[in-house]
Each structure stands twice: as structure tokens, then as C-alpha cells.
Amino acid sequence: MPFVSSRKTLFASCLTGAALIFTPAALSQTPNDPVLAELAETARQEADAPAAAMMRMHEGEVRIGVAGLRDIDDSVEVTPDDLWHIGSNTKSMTATLVARLAEQGVISWDDTVEQHLGEAIDNIDPGFTGVTFRHLLSHYSGAKANIGMFHMMRFLIEGSDGRPMPEQRLDYAGHILSQAPQSEPGTSFLYSNAGYVIAGAMLEQATGEAWETLIARDVFEPLGIDDFGFGAPGSTDIVDQPRGHRGGLFGGLTSQTGAEGDNPPVLGPAGTLHISLPDYALYLQAHIDGGRGVESDFLTAESWDILLTQPFDTTYAMGWGLGSDELQHSGSNTMWIMHTAVVPQQDFGAIVVMNRAVDRSGGQLLRAISEAD
Fold it and tell me: Which residue has the higher pLDDT, 5 or 242?
């Protein structure tokens, strides 16, 4: 995916009373921006998606526009405060967690797989022993992209059965690390969800706490973020949040909830988080500010430099794809799709998300958001 430097051409090549009855829209606290809502409706129709949402951030102003239904088989409309699954946009959050824990002295960016997992996993291939957080979070570890389908099915069952996440992530990491790297660490870019699970396992072994606990306490709480969760958003018995959708066996779309609505929770560090757009804006603003040198208590300038600069010869930093002046990422669990782009020096961000995965670039949609008056 090529990157461009102008916001105007951003991703041109790639998007109370008991007697009262409240509708979801009436309960929403965030206004539905009419311009962005119109864009969302057009995008939703073109993608044949039940719903779409768009967010535009510029110089402290956050505008959100939504259109469509939470569930294709229900009449409840989405609202600007709904929760959306963000897929691999979670990756920069895991990298940010590493930065926070590094500043606390809990871990170091150059800590290795052997240091944190060597005593818990007894068959690590020698090719992986020197792999660091830098390698894992920039997709330069040599770890393959994903674990096999058999293990994915097993972890899906174990996730529902309640096996502790740190145990599952050690198990997952052990299967990946027991095989030789697919390339020599530090030499080739290989996008790897598995690498982020390994990084999560390392954090859990270093702290004795689950990644879910760490991300909530050390990343979200300091930023004032509290409207988030893991896995598919919402309840399985009432349509209280948007639901992801996939193509039905005989055509059409079917909504997915509960365990079937996401990948196994063991993949958390790589992409199982959902969040409201207003709270996602808080997270993105921290990165926009960090990228343009605004001082804060959240991270030091040195940490922001590590997070937002590629450590190897590629256009990828720590959970962010890099252009000449923008950061971007996309994420999908095959039932949702989100495209995120921020331009720190212009104090700007654009996000589009749908509750159906669409095999198309988000560039045109992101450009439309950037040009919205």
C-alpha cells in the first residue's frame, strides 16, 4: 500500500421517566455528524455492509458519523457511541504497552525470547532465542504469520472454556517457537500475528499478569479510556451493540456473536479488541501528539521515537505502517474492517469501520473523510 504526504490525497491509492421509551440514538451522547453520516451511508451501501462509521479528527475536534444497522436482521440503528471491533489496529496498542512497561523498567525493548520464555518453553528453536520485542513488533522476527487451523480451533474452544490466557499464550508461543524462523530475524519483513502473541506471552511472563489486564491498566486508564473490551462486542441475546457479519452459506449476510464473532482470544495482542470511536480518538490523539513532539506524562519523546520509527529497512514501525508523514493500519477478523490513518504534523486523523469485512482499499474513503467540511 503506497503512502502519500498530503492529507488532501491521503491514501488516494488504497478509506427518565419510566414511561419514556428511549431509542439507541436518543441514548447516544455523541452527535451524529451529518456530513460524515452521509458518507458512511454511501460507503455502507457500496460495500453492502449493514453499517458503517467514520471519524475525523483535526486540531482537537472529533467528528463521528454513522449509518446503518447493528444487525442485518434487526432494526436497531448504530450510534456514534457504539463499540466497533478494530482487528489489527490493536497491534499499535500492544506496542504502546511495551513502551509503557519499558519506561517503568519492567522490561526492555531489547529483551529476548530466551530471557522471558526460555524457562517456560523448553524447545525454542535456536533461531528464535535472540529475537527481541523490536523484532516481534515490527514483523522482523521470522515468525510465521499464523498458527495452523487445528490449533486455532483448539484455542477457540479453550478460550470459551476459560483456560487462563497466559497459559494459552505460552502454549501458542511454544508451537511457533519450536519451529525454525521462516527467515533470519532482522532480515525480512513478514507480517505475523503470531509474533504479537509471542510478545504478549513475554509481557505476561515478565509481569505475572494477563495482557488484557496490562493493556487496560497501563495504556487505557492513563488516557481516560474505559469504553472497550475484548472479542465480539455486545451481548448474544439482545442487539445492544453492532455485530460482525459474514457471507451466508446460501448467500446474504449472517451476524456473528459470542465466540463465533471473533478469532480465539489467545490472539488478543494481535487483534481482538473492540472500542468506541470517542475512546479510540483519545488513543489516536496520544499518538498524534507524540508524533508531533507534544510533551506529556504518557510517554517520553524517546519512546515515541521508538514506536513511530521503523527499526529495520521497511515502512513499518511498531504496529504502524509508515508513509512520508502519516501512520496507518487496517484490521479485520473477517467479520469487520477498520482503516485508520493519522498525520501527526497536521494534527489529523481519519477512521472508517464497517461491521462486514470488505475486500477493498480504504484509501478513497479516508480521503473523503479528510476532505469533509
Answer: 242
